[in-house]
Specification:
The chain is mostly beta strands and 117 residues long. The protein has no helices and eleven strands. The strands form two sheets. Strands 2, 4, 5, 6, 9, 10 and 11 form a seven-stranded mixed beta sheet that branches. It is globular and about 40 Å long. The N and C termini lie far apart (40 Å).
């Protein structure tokens, strides 16, 4: 059974920092591209950042320079370090695992991040 379990969300003031974690089980973690997506109320889910199996990273323009995605293959965990948070970063953040080679994709249940002004 595949599980992606996010943690680390919460309430923070603007300018603050949070680190999200996503622990994966039931997949061969090292071959998956891992990603973070977010969905704000009334908006579509959007890409935040991804990291490939070769550690190639990709970021949404809105978070470049503020967020950092990383992975620890030994712990089957992907992280999202979020700095200089803004109220517009408020959303439910979802962990994603995708393997083009296997044609599989999985989602976590999401963790709420709220940034107060």
């Amino acid at each position: 059974q595949v599980q992606l379990v996010e943690s680390g969300g919460g309430l923070v003031q603007a300018g603050g920092s949070l680190r999200l974690s996503c622990a994966a089980s039931g997949i061969r973690f090292m071959i998956y591209t891992m990603g973070w997506y977010r969905q704000a109320p009334g908006k579509q889910r959007e890409l935040v950042a991804t990291i490939s199996s070769y550690d190639y990273t990709n970021y949404a323009d809105s978070v470049k320079g503020r967020f950092t995605i990383s992975r620890d293959n030994a712990k089957n965990t992907v992280y999202l370090e979020m700095n200089s948070l803004k109220p517009e970063d408020t959303a439910v953040y979802y962990c994603n695992a995708e393997s083009e080679r296997l044609g599989t994709e999985y989602w976590g249940q999401g963790t709420q991040v709220t940034v107060s002004s």
